[in-house]
């Protein structure tokens, strides 16, 4: 009689333990997807960007217009190159005394 009672107890505890382990495996599968979906064009991500700008600078009392080409790289670096430098007309300042 004692052996039959122990056998039923073992089967009863096994009935409670198996569903809980199955629930854990289902939760683990739901938390770790096997499909990776990326929206957008992948080729655009690593492309460098080139921007051309102009600025006016003063060098030794002479005014210049510089055209700059700035390259922005994918890793965060930038490279600036002066394309052209044109001397602008003199601006004379007349002072009244």
Question: Span between N and C termini?
Answer: 125 Å
The main sheet comes to: 3 strands, antiparallel
Strand order, largest beta sheet? 1-2-3
The helical percent reads 25-40%
SSE arrangement, N to C: HEEE
Estimate the mean pLDDT confidence. 78
Oligomer: single chain
Give the percentage of residues in beta strands. 25-35%
Flag low-confidence runs. none
Structural class: alpha+beta
Task: Specify the number of helices.
Answer: 1
Shape: rod-shaped
Total count of strands? 3
Instruction: Tell me the radius of gyration.
Output: 37 Å
How would you describe what is shown here?
The longest helix is centred in the N-terminal third of the chain and has 30 residues, at 2-31. This protein is an alpha+beta fold and 97 residues long. The protein is rod-shaped. Helix content is 31%, strand content 33%. The chain has a domain at 42-87. Strands 1-2-3 form a three-stranded antiparallel β-sheet, with no helix packed on it. The chain has one helix and three strands; from the N terminus they run αβββ. A hairpin with a 5-residue loop joins β2 and β3.
